[in-house]
Amino acid sequence: PNTVEIRSLAVNPKDNKEIQYVTQNTFMFSSDGGVTWNSKKLPSARIANLLLVDPQDGKILYLGMGKAPKQD
Q1: Does the pTM of the predicted model rise above 0.90?
Q2: Are 63 and 48 within 8 A, CB to CB?
Q3: 69 pLDDT above the threshold of 80
Q4: What is the rounded distance in angstroms from the CA atom of residue 51 to the CA atom of residue 37?
Q5: Are residues 17 and 33 in contact, defined by beta-carbon separation less than 8 angstroms?
Q6: How does pLDDT run across 6-27, given as a tens digit for each residue?
Q7: Beta-strand (E) ranges in 1-72?
Q8: What does the alpha-carbon distance between residue 57 and residue 50 come to, in Å, rounded to a whole number?
Q9: What angle do CA 4, 59, 66 make, to 5 degrees?
């Protein structure tokens, strides 16, 4: 089965139809409550860990990233 590990999920507190989540290296966004989704590859080799919507301005997002695990 196709599965994805969602690292962090955030909803705009001013518009609950705006939902965002990040996987290890992709940002996903829906403006219609999850009916349709858009994706953007993150421009970094680091891994996304935390996504936060600014409580005062729902158009501002904060993304926390960590080091990628070492490859053997």
Answers
A1: no
A2: yes
A3: no
A4: 17
A5: yes
A6: 999 999 999 999 999 999 999 9
A7: 8-11, 19-22, 26-30, 38-41, 47-53, 61-66
A8: 18
A9: 45
